[in-house]
Amino acid sequence: MRGRWMKHKERLAEYAGMVEAGLDRLLPLDGLRQDQVMEAMRYSALGGGKRLRGAFMLEFCRISGGDVQAALPYACAIEMIHAYSLIHDDLPCMDNDDMRRGKPSCHRAFDEATALLAGDGLLNRAFETAVSEEAAGRLDAARVLRLTRELAGAAGFYGMIGGQCIDLAYDGRMPDLATLNELIALKTGALIRVACRMGCIAAGASEAQIAAADTFAARLGLAFQIRDDMLDVEGDASVLGKATHADERQGKTTYPALLGMEACRQEVDRLTGEAVEALDQFADREFLTELAWSLTSRLK
Ligand code: GRG
Fold this sequence. Notes:
Blueprint: H1 2-26, H2 35-45, H3 52-63, H4 68-90, E1 99-100, E2 103-104, H5 106-109, H6 112-130, H7 133-136, H8 141-155, H9 160-169, H10 177-187, H11 189-203, H12 207-234, H13 237-240, H14 246-249, H15 255-259, H16 261-277, H17 286-295
Antiparallel strand pairs: 1-2
Helix pairs in contact: 1-3, 1-4, 1-17, 2-6, 3-4, 3-11, 4-6, 4-11, 8-11, 9-10, 11-12, 12-16, 16-17
The chain binds geranylgeranyl diphosphate.
The site of geranylgeranyl diphosphate has 17 residues, from helix 4, helix 9 and helix 12.
């Protein structure tokens, strides 16, 4: 089991390397007057992060028989949106976190105004990338349209931003489990779901396969957030690259607070099992299966 995962780790590293190189190229420093913001965009988007969303997109594309190189700009676009959400999430008006990915958060390394603009810059650059000649030139127009529409929906009011809105609305109040599940399905789940869906869409997979990828990601997204909440309680800040006990300090309702740690552990396993079952639609599912199970005991 462990040996198999070591083999798959190499594929994850390969995908991460592809995304990193893509982001480096798509976020160039051109000697412009406004380069301070591009520096902040690069600071937050490059050199860190597990690249799980990008890897999910590329792997679903591969196992659906698609061209991984053609999907790469979209994987980079998803990671740009993820990086933007982390920059804004760390701002004093949101979670007010000083550390991210083992270094000062963007507004700490630069300043608040630059961090705000860097987040906005990454969000816009993601969509510029999605419809760029490089991306759109390799896929037919209907696929480009659907990929871009799905990405916009998942990042927006009906997706990730919607989740953040519900989160803010419950500041100082305790949501019940159903509300917390709904909030997390949007805030964390929407981007993970769209990454998996987009991999299938880029490859021209069947609607049944897109639905299966969606179910995999919805279950995994929830398990991922529960594990994230657990790491805030029992994780090591130096491994995590950010402060622990931040949820408690901010009075946030988390899964450990609602369920307790042991029930969280069981939920992570149960949801991951359900996620893996949904992969039945795909013949070549070993990497995603191993990756999903490895996330149940992740330390960062
Ligand atoms: C428009 C102000 C404004 C905000 C954008 C902030 C925001 C909307 C949404 C918050 C989204 C968010 C931070 C969700 C948390 C999801 C989560 C568990 C992130 C950590 O993901 P990892 O572990 O991170 O994959 P790495 O660093 O590995 O990429």
